[in-house]
Each structure stands twice: as structure tokens, then as C-alpha cells.
Amino acid sequence: MNFNLAVVAGDGIGPEVMEQNIRVLDKIGEKFGHSFKYEHVLGGGCAIDKFGEPLPQHTIDVCKASDSVLLGAVGGWQWDTLPGDKRPERALLGLRGALGLYANLRPATLHEALKDACPLKPELVADGVDIMVVRELTGGMYFGEKGRKQTELGEAAYDVEQYSVKEVERITRTAFEIARKRKKHVTNVDKQNVLESSRLWRSVVLEVAKDYPDVELDHLYVDNASMQLIMRPTTFDVIVTGNIFGDILSDEASQMTGSIGMLPSASLGEGSLGMYEPVHGSAPDIAGKNIANPIATILSGAMMLKYSFGLQDESKAIEDAVAKVLNNGYRTGDIMSEGMKQLGCKEMADAILAEI
Ligand code: NAD
Questions:
Q1: How far apart are the first and last CA of the chain?
Q2: Residue to mutate (ligand 1; options 78, 267, 275, 280; most atoms within 8 A of CB)
């Protein structure tokens, strides 16, 4: 198969880790008989420097016309004093909006070889952590009506949490479809004992679940979910939740995995086009030194193969290669521990390529 990929490498370590991602994808193409064509476009700080705006229309057009988008990271101290709507990070929100990406997938997987890096007691993670947080990305109070008003108690501010049936239905379907490819277990997280928006959310989840009798469904209130995640992390499979709850819970879950340099993510919409990026930022403190961990970005490439193109074996080949390299004791600086062998960014990708 042939795929056209838009590449927004971005700023800081973005271009370094993206280069390694592309090498790995090319190797997969060679091995499994696919070809990937890359169109590099500017987004973030580098686009501000060249065009005066973080997300030029040309970048949006190329991304829209692609089969999927690979993103490195954007941002850096050079652009920190710009006003909010001119900052590099606008490129992320702008692309998600322009591409209609409403589902954010954040896996939290604790690799066997990195169990020591997990802050939880060993017995709590002995059975392995493998959680997929499916977070609604374009609704809820982050996008609801907001403002200020005078009240009896003086000035007040508000952000409205609102969800439509359609918004809940599509994110729930995404979660159930993903669960079908995993352990067939969805945990819905809401706060329906207090919030009307959560009551609607829960009723839609229950309705959609009828179409997935093969998938087990349970429900947790968000406060309880945050406790259960650290008390019994190995019992979760897919978590589906709204924007703000997902923002918080996905960060909590991610801490079990050792380093931000290990965490990929995907943003999906109605079609197969998705945007795949590491969770970390542009790490200006280590940019250009060949010490960044490329694994998060390489695993986001693996997610693209699985979720946008349905290439399960190809995706697994990358995941298995990463696991083998870690089992063989190779580490980048961020996940380094005693007795292991430290590699640079490019050398880590070399080791992964050798295993593929
Ligand atoms: P960051 O994720 O860039 O870095 C946090 C810490 O983690 C740093 O010490 C960094 O060196 C380390 N780190 C991050 N990725 C690493 C990797 N792959 N390998 C090894 N170490 C790694 O977060 P920050 O410092 O808060 O933000 C830096 C810039 O990135 C800011 O401009 C911020 O706005 C931006 N940012 C962008 C994104 C994105 O593009 N999706 C996300 C978060 C932050």
C-alpha cells in the first residue's frame, strides 16, 4: 500500500525524534511492502519565524489532503512572550479543529523492562499496566461558553460544561471499537451523581453499549477513578471520558510508565485520517544534543499504522522491537538506570531498526 503522510516536525527536539520515526516507518515499509511519502510542512515556532503565524493555511491544506499527520512537538522559550493566540501551541489546537479530530487516545503501557521506573509499589503493577485513555477532545468546558459576571458575592467567572448526544455517541463508539481490538473492557468515567451533563453522558454510553454486547462495560465516578487507577491499575483496559476528566486521568495514568519520553498519542476523527504525536513537548533544554528519547514518537508511528491504516502486524513489529531493545538493556538518558547501556537519540533508533 502507498501512504501520503504530512509531517509537522515542529520545534526543539521535534525534528530529531521525527527523523528517527521516519527511518523506522521506512524500514517497516521495506519489510512489509508499503511505501510512505512524506510532505514536510511548518507548524509552531518555526512557522512563526518564517511566515509570522503558527499554523499557515498551506500546512492545514497539506494535512487535510494527507492520509495521516505525524507531529513532532512545538514551542520554545523564543516564543514564550507572544500573546496566547499567536503562540506555537495554537498550531496543535488549530490542526485538531481543522481536521475534525475529536478523540484523543493516550496509551499508558508499563514496559516489563522499565518496571523499576514506575512510582507505584511493585506488587500493584506485577500483572503489567496497559491502559488506553480515550478522551473527548473538542467539547466540554474547555470549549463551552465562558465569561465573567457580577454576582451577589462580587465578580465571578464561569466555563460551561456541555455535551451533545452526538458528541458522546461518537467518542463512545471509538472507545468500544478500540476495546474490541484489546481486552474488550470499557470503563466509563463521569460524575453523574452531581452533573446533568454526566447524566446525559452516561445514558448515551449505555445506549451505545447495546451495540457491543461482546465488550464488558463498567462505570466509575471520576473521583473514584483517580483512586482506583493507582490502587488497581492492572485491571483497566479502555477508559472513556470527557475532555477535562480525560486531561487529568491520562496524565495520572502516564506517570506509571517511567518517562514522558515513552508516551505516544493519537487524535482521531470520523475518517481514517489521524494526527499522531508524542505526549512530550519540544524539550528545548535538550534539543540538538542527540539525547532525546525517540521512542514516544516511534510508538506514535506504530499507533498510526494500527488505528489509521489497520496494519496490525506492522504496528506490532515496531512495538515488539521497542520492547526487545529495552529488554536488552538499552536506554536513553531519561530512562537510564544502573547497569544499563545508554544510547543517543539516533543510536536508540538504530537499535530498534536492527530488531525490526
Ligand atoms: P517538555 O515535555 O518539552 O519537557 C519536560 C521535561 O521532559 C524536560 O526536562 C525535557 O528535557 C524532558 N523531555 C521531554 N521529552 C523528552 C524526550 N523525548 N526525551 C528525553 N527527555 C524529554 O515540556 P516543557 O518543558 O513544559 O515544554 C517545553 C515546550 O514544549 C514549551 O514551549 C511547551 O509549551 C511545549 N509543549 C509542546 C507540546 C506539544 O507540542 N504537544 C506539549 C507540551 C509542551
A1: 19
A2: 280
In a domain, 114, yes or no: no
Asked whether 279 and 135 are in contact (CB, 8 A), the reply is no
The per-residue pLDDT for range 200-218, each reduced to its tens digit, is: 999 999 999 999 999 999 9
Distance CA 309, CA 307 (A): 6
CATH number, residue 138:
3.40.718.10
Residues 63 and 154 in one domain: no
pLDDT at res. 283: 97
Mean pLDDT of the chain: 96
Amino acid at 3: F
Q: Domain residues for 51?
A: 1-109+261-356
Confidence of residue 117 (pLDDT cuts 50, 70, 90): confident
In a domain, 77, yes or no: yes
Task: Give how many domains the chain has, as a whole number.
Answer: 2
pLDDT (tens digit, 9 = 90+) per residue, 184-199? 999 999 999 999 999 9
CA 295 – ligand 1 centroid, Å: 14
Overall average pLDDT of the 27-46 stretch: 98
Residue type, 46: C
The secondary structure of residue 33, as a DSSP letter, is: T
